[in-house]
Write a structure and sequence with these properties.
about 0% strand, mainly alpha
């Protein structure tokens, strides 16, 4: 048993330089490789997260602008529709006014023609009445000499 303990002690004593080199290697790895690599990865992660957040902000801003543009477009369409309706109403009013004026002129023309016709009828009636006596006299002269046995002229 003593011998085993001596062999284990010799192995441990022989492994001390290897253990010291291993610890030095782990520390060197920690300071030379792991530390800078961790810093680089954390910086990269921060930049990536910042870029993602920046992208989210840009997307939100773009969506806000798109909503504003859509609202402006809706308002512009409503304004165009309102102006169109206003023009249609104005044209309807103008058309109604023109029709009303045309009717008034036509009624005035009909009234003038009726007055003129009434005047012509009155003139023709007076002319007929004036010539009726002469026609009656001519009829009587044409009929009476024949009845008396005279010759027709």
């Amino acid at each position: 048993m003593q011998e085993i303990i001596q062999q284990v002690g010799a192995l441990l004593l022989g492994s001390v330089p290897t253990l010291i080199l291993f610890i030095a290697l782990v520390l060197a790895y920690q300071f030379l490789v792991q530390g800078p690599l961790s810093r680089t990865l954390s910086e990269r992660r921060a930049r990536t997260t910042g870029a993602v957040e920046e992208a989210h902000r840009a997307i939100a801003a773009a969506e806000t602008r798109a909503a504003e543009y859509a609202e402006k477009l809706r308002q512009a369409r409503a304004e165009v529709f309102r102006m169109r309706e206003q023009r249609l109403h104005q044209r309807s009013v103008e058309r109604d006014a023109a029709l009303s004026e045309a009717r008034r002129q036509a009624q005035e023309r009909v009234r003038q023609v009726r007055v003129a016709m009434a005047s012509e009828v009155a003139t023709a009636r007076q002319a007929l009445l004036a010539s009726a006596d002469q026609l009656a006299l001519q009829v009587v002269q044409a009929v009476l000499p024949q009845a008396a046995g005279g010759v027709r002229s």
